[in-house]
Amino acid sequence: MKVTFKIWRQENSSSKGSLKSYETDGLTEEMSFLEALDHLNEILVLKNEEVIAFEHDCREGICGQCGVFINGRAHGPHDQITTCQLHMRSFKDGDTIVVEPWRASAFPIVKDLVVDRSAFDRIIEHGGYITAKTGTAPEANAIPISKEIADASMDVAACIGCGACVATCKNASAALFTSAKINHLSKLPQGQPEAHRRVLEMTAQMDLEKFGSCSFTGACEVECPAGISISSIAEMNARFAKASLFS
């Protein structure tokens, strides 16, 4: 299998980048997309050329590190998968595949396809936790939680922080990510003591990181690998209004 990769190359956030073409042969349909990039990098090493920088860790759709735009779509042509779960069988022999990093001012480019997503970490630091003492796990039935609430919490806790929601949003909003991190804790009884402070401080930090405002276009929901609904944003807004009244 032979394809042409057009990949964004950029030395750092302050330098000017551009797309560079690489004709790549020897690929198979069974290769994952990241394995194809590994193969290309091996070829570049043999040519004494600089390898392409891209992020990855688990390669199992868990860590959220591998996100890139592929032919203009976050994570590639399929719904609810990460880049590492995409395989070359999704493309045809002779295809041209355009690969670009996330585009958002809050995600400055580090190098090539690698962006700095530490803004997400700073949002979580401002309330994405509970203050209950940790230690030996309590008995499972000590705090009764209905299945409906537990399921709703787990649905938004599925967020892996990949940044596809920000990158695909025309406003570069982090509302879906922030709402998921707020709601999965605030739905549960363990998260109630900090509920008001959590939503106020995390949304304030989101604004400080210069993410854009949410205009509810729904693009984030479409590209989210975990399929998190924009109803999570509506719930965050309701929590914010309530917290504002009681703060």
Strand-helix topology:
Elements: E1 3-9, E2 18-24, H1 33-46, E3 69-70, E4 73-74, E5 96-100, E6 109-111, E7 114-115, H2 118-125, H3 147-157, H4 164-168, H5 175-186, H6 195-208, H7 219-223, H8 231-246
Parallel strand pairs: 1-5
Antiparallel strand pairs: 1-2, 3-4, 3-5, 6-7
Helix pairs in contact: 2-6, 3-5, 5-6, 5-8, 6-8
Verbal overview:
The strands form two sheets. Strands 2-1-5-3-4 form a five-stranded mixed beta sheet. A two-stranded antiparallel ribbon has the order 6-7. It has helices spanning 33-46, 118-125, 147-157, 164-168, 175-186, 195-208, 219-223, 231-246, and strands at 3-9, 18-24, 69-70, 73-74, 96-100, 109-111, 114-115. The mean pLDDT is 95. It has two domains: 3-110, Roll (Ubiquitin-like (UB roll)), CATH 3.10.20.30; 117-246, Fumarate Reductase Iron-sulfur Protein, Chain B, domain 2 (Orthogonal Bundle). The longest helix has 16 residues, at 231-246. Helices cover 34% and strands 11% of the residues. The chain is α+β, with helices and mostly antiparallel strands and 247 residues long.
Write a concise keyword list for the protein shown above.
2 domains; alpha+beta; Fumarate Reductase Iron-sulfur Protein, Chain B, domain 2; Ubiquitin-like (UB roll); two-stranded antiparallel sheet; 247 residues
